[in-house]
């Protein structure tokens, strides 16, 4: 009887140890997955240098007078991106003069959609009269660093010294289909808070759009 109880205790203790080890492993895996998702609010953003439709290469450090940027990952083919074209242009028109210009980046593999080729990016930028740089992330390394999964997605960054700190991640507003029916302007609210010296309260919203087309997938 004593031997039986001792065996039960041994099995119980072994189970506890195994459970602890499994829990530790699972926790480590969860942390790794979170890290793979890209930047989080408060992170310092690594600068990039990407080709613009103008032919020049653009980075965040190019403009020393900015207070930050509205970085929009968008593209040509996606109907959600097309629906937001005029609103992205309006954001640049409203906030560029206040220190928060737009930088648009196309994260897609152009072989997946010919419409997203660099040449077609140039056509769209010229036809629409973009007042902001429209960049091609040819290597897709910048898009992966940000953790972009859909277009359009917005990342608002604030300049602090020579660093750019992430302040907002998500959508532009709460109505993709009808700009006149928008009730919540997420990006505008974020920028207005920053300009007023206040923290961004709603600093994350769900992004609705087209999945990014990755190379080799």
Architecture blueprint of SSEs:
Blueprint: H1 2-36, E1 50-52, E2 57-58, E3 68-73, H2 79-95, E4 102-106, H3 118-128, E5 134-136, H4 141-146, E6 150-151, E7 153-160, E8 163-170, H5 186-195, E9 210-211
Parallel strand pairs: 3-4, 4-5
Antiparallel strand pairs: 1-2, 1-5, 3-7, 6-9, 7-8
3D architecture notes:
The protein folds into two domains: 1-36; 50-211, Glutaredoxin. It is globular and about 45 Å long. The chain has a seven-stranded mixed beta sheet with strand order 2-1-5-4-3-7-8, with helices on one face. A two-stranded antiparallel sheet has the order 6-9. β1 and β2 form a beta hairpin. It contains five helices and nine strands. Residues 1-36 have low confidence and may be disordered. The protein is of the alpha+beta class and 217 residues long.
Number of domains: 2
CATH fold name of the largest domain:
Glutaredoxin
Question: What is the subunit organization of this protein?
Answer: single chain
Sheet/helix structural class: alpha+beta
Which percent bin holds the helix content? 25-40%
Overall pLDDT score: 87
Order of helices and strands: HEEEHEHEHEEEHE
Largest sheet strand order: 2-1-5-4-3-7-8
Count of DSSP helices? 5
The CATH class of the largest domain? Alpha Beta
The parts where pLDDT drops under 50 for at least 5 residues are: 1-36
CATH superfamily of the largest domain: Glutaredoxin
- Radius of gyration over alpha carbons? 22 Å
End-to-end distance:
61 Å
Which CATH architecture of the largest domain is right? 3-Layer(aba) Sandwich
- Tell me, what's the shape? globular
Total beta strand runs = 9
Range of strand content: 15-25%
GO molecular function: peroxidase activity
Protein name: Glutathione peroxidase-family protein
Keywords: Oxidoreductase, Peroxidase, Signal
Signal peptide: 1-25
């Amino acid at each position: 009887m004593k031997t039986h109880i001792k065996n039960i205790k041994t099995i119980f203790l072994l189970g506890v140890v195994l459970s602890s080890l499994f829990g530790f492993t699972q926790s480590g895996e969860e942390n790794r997955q979170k890290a793979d998702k890209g930047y989080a609010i408060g992170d310092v953003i690594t600068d990039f240098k990407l080709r613009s439709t103008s032919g020049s290469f653009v980075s965040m450090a190019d403009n020393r007078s900015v207070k930050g940027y509205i970085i929009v990952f968008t593209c040509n083919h996606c109907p959600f991106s097309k629906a937001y074209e005029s609103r992205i242009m309006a954001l640049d028109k409203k906030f560029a003069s206040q220190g928060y210009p737009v930088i648009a980046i196309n994260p897609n593999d152009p072989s997946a959609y010919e419409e997203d080729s660099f040449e077609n990016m140039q056509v769209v930028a010229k036809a629409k009269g973009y007042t902001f740089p429209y960049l091609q992330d040819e290597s897709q390394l910048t898009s992966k660093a940000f953790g972009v999964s859909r277009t359009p997605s917005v990342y608002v960054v604030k300049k602090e010294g020579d660093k750019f700190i992430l302040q907002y991640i998500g959508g532009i507003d709460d109505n993709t289909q009808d700009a006149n029916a928008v009730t919540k302007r997420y990006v505008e609210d974020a920028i207005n808070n920053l300009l007023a010296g206040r923290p961004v309260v709603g600093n994350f919203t769900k992004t609705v759009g087209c999945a990014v087309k990755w190379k080799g997938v």
